[in-house]
Amino acid sequence: PTSNSPPAPSPPTPLPRPPPPPVLQMPAQTRDKNVGTVSKAPLSLDIFRSMAAAAVDSHAMEDDDVADLAGVLKYVHTEILTEHLQNPLRTARKYDIDSWTIHRYKLKNPEKLLQSPDRLQGEFGQFVTYDWGKATNPAQLPMLAKYGSFVGIAPCSDLRCDVRFPAERPYSWLSVGNWCPNLAWDKKGTKDKPNATCLQMEGETILGG
Known about the structure:
Elements: E1 29-32, E2 36-39, E3 43-51, E4 64-67, H1 69-80, E5 99-107, H2 111-114, E6 125-126, E7 130-131, E8 134-135, H3 141-147, E9 152-156, E10 171-176, E11 200-201, E12 204-205
Parallel strand pairs: 6-9
Antiparallel strand pairs: 1-2, 3-5, 4-10, 7-8, 9-10, 11-12
């Protein structure tokens, strides 16, 4: 280069390195060689229920089927808004459903269930179908008598669980209870004086949780 040549450009200043991502502190865990990893800390999750607004908070949220947000949307679309299956002269929707409720749950299922082959999706038991507070599948009563109170799950992970509802994200239905799960709400009695025919676990009436 000659004396009339422009000076060479300075090398670019290197950009500072971004800070490392924060380390997530996971709950303490325990491992069983047969069923994998189980969290010792309670789970916190929001659950939803579609119901008649007039019945909200009329009884404890137990012996019932609920869902996550996508699950309750699926239920409304495939079970409630089925106009062609309903009486055209009706004045209310099926089950008088006109609202959703949302509840924040802290979940910790019994250790006996979590360390068994009946555990599903990491922290749950089998989904229990309930109508009016009564478990409708008699084949599940021995399982309820074995584990007592727990939250069950019916997951849809592959997005192809129902052709009527082409999902774009996984969803789940949940069952909560199980207080005297073999009888309807109006037959259970009270937890202080339960019906003598209520399902028992190890000689004690199952009182829910």
